[in-house]
Amino acid sequence: MYKSRHSKDPLSQKVRAAMRAKQVDTSNIPTFFTPPPDYSQEIAQECGRWNYFYPFLLHQDASAIQIHTADEQRLGQRPLSWVLRSAQHSEPQARLTSGLPVVQDSPGLRVSRGLDFLKVSLHVKWSPAYFGQFLGTLDQKKKQAQDTELDCIPIFEESGFDWNLSRSGTRLYTFRMTSGDITLLFNRRPHNQKIPNCRVEIGSLSCWSPGFYAIYNRIKTFLSLYGGDIHKEQVSEVHLTADFVGCDIKTVALDNREHWIALARNDGDFDGLKVHKKDAEPEPEELAFDRRYTNRKFSGLNIGSGDLMLRVYDKVVELKNTRATHKQQIFSEIWGVKAYDERPVTRVEYQIRRPKLREFCNDEDERINTVFDLVNCLKSLWRYLTTEWTRHTESPVNRNHNQSKSKVSEFWQKVQSVVWTGVFGYVRSHPVKHKDIDMLRKQARGILMSVCASLEVEPDDIDKIVYLCKEMIEEDLHRFFEDEEAFVTKMTTKRNEFRATLAG
Fold it and tell me: Residue 207: which domain range?
């Protein structure tokens, strides 16, 4: 029979005594971990920009973090929690979230989740004292842009944005402003009409860094500076994305249609999110199923179309094919790798547009209208999309039997378990430019060599080639600078275009 032997180590003896409810002297118990650093001074700055060394993203309107101590837990109070209260508003504000990617417990697998695109339609009520001035400035600048060969010119520098105004608008909007991959559209309609008079589009990079919620709040601040008050807002389109770093799409058998279930034919309740379908879902056989191949290798697929669509694809291949060096740099940081193509990455992305968003509501029958509504239901939306609308199974599905009993594949189990809580954003450790500087310099070298060749300069006379190139550049730039205003405008526009996202 096994006989236990108690350790004579002083620490072990004290632990056993504490377990028997005896009084223990803890003054001389050694500490085996380093106390955490004091981050109390490293918080979000007043300008809305983030401290790179602070491990969490904190909304600029939030108050201090409240943490319950171990003594409070022992006395029966609630466990450790973070509580954020608004300092300026009565409505609840954004929750605290880690700036690092969400990590699953699977060995060798790292998961980053977030929004990859967000479009919000706004009904903005303008203050009469400001709107005439604001609209007049847009009109004046737009005419100025149309009088030049430029596609856009700089217009506003407010709330961290460096806006460029385009010489043309869109179908429903007269004015189009851009800052990085953020677009702001306006028309002259009043706020109480059916068609919105403003629209916000936040692109992929800004959604990830510094984050869609931070960007959207800065846009609201920008509008308020010019007398704009948001009377009504509606999320028009959102892309929910999860990147599985370390997962090769070619190893999870996603290209076989027989392994996919597309149901979602009935109304239901999913974690407090109710579904009321207005239009009948197509039969599974009628649902679009498009495979994509790169160099004859499977690289992705699309399920569905239009208002609701699922995309699963090789994100590394996409970044390589688009040659977007700024995206390669940012996503390598987000994924925690030295180079974007160091490890395979499979992206799962759901595109949801307004007609489908209207089918969802909470327990009080409130629709997903505002960005805050969207933040609060992301978890429920993801559950509905990955458990009801589409599922990937371990083996081919027998369409003649109960499909709900088909076992979900190991990969899709990981997809379903992605954590969707808090507000999202990633703090960049390095500045990122929208265009490839090395590529531009290479193009410039090629053009200058062509000019020198046309002048019949000897190919081996490098000193003369350098001298001619220098002379031509100086002469052309000085001639261009004779119109100082035009020169500054063009340089400012190009500087703004080079910024990939809002500064973090």
Answer: 110-416
